[in-house]
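Chain A, query sequence.
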Amino acid sequence: MSAQRALIAQISDLHVRPPGQLTSGRIDTASALTRCVAELNRLEPRPDLVVISGDLTDIPTPDAYDHLLRLLAPLEIPFAALPGNHDDRALMRAALPDDRYACASGPLNSLREIGAADVILLDSVVPNAAHGVLGQGTLAWLDAALGASSRRPALVFLHHPPFDTGIADMDKDNLRNAPEFAAVLHRHERALLVATGHVHRAVVTTFAGRAATICPAPNLAVALDLDERLPPSFKIEPPAFHLHVWLPDDRFGNVVTHWVPIGDFSGPHPFFDSDGRYL
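Chain A, predicted structure.
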């Protein structure tokens, strides 16, 4: 395979509110997104695309989406977005019109060709609910989109994880029809990655025989509560995002995912001096 690698940055769970409002009474998500955009802009090499995997707003209103667009305006990389359970499809479609949406109304599914790879965005939103479902129309569209090529690798993004994390308060609101989703993926070997959001934590596992990830958030982290000791809680942990790197190899190639912290850190520092001696 002679194709060049593809770099897909993923940010998730931005939870933007109108100017001056804090999320959960204490989180300045606008400033967090501003720092995230600055970090994305200074990545070298520059990603080919930024995928925003849902919960663009915290409480969906026109003012919140207007504020989101102002915060994203400095981003120097093309981006594509899918909705989360804190979004409103109609408001999001109006704020982010895109001729690549699969349908003129309803779920905001879309596909982007990034070099030799396909990036597929799925809408798992159930209106007025926290959990997710991939509707029958979305599953049929995904089946057709994956079936359109037998050669191009595909990376699949959605908001709700189709697997449990062990954090019970989040797992009750994950994707409810994961077996149907898995059945579609099993028919198409070219789908290499399932990348999600929703949990505000970096998580890695497998799903339907593919690598599967959850993207961390730029603002807050859901508490790592694996024995149900706590009420629904969050912590202020180092903010981060994911950088998915598709590397050409035999047949469909391979995807690796890097956790990228947001902030200023010392370095890079050399391991060796000018004479090649280990420092």
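The first strand starts at residue 6 and ends at 11. The two ends are 39 Å apart (CA to CA).
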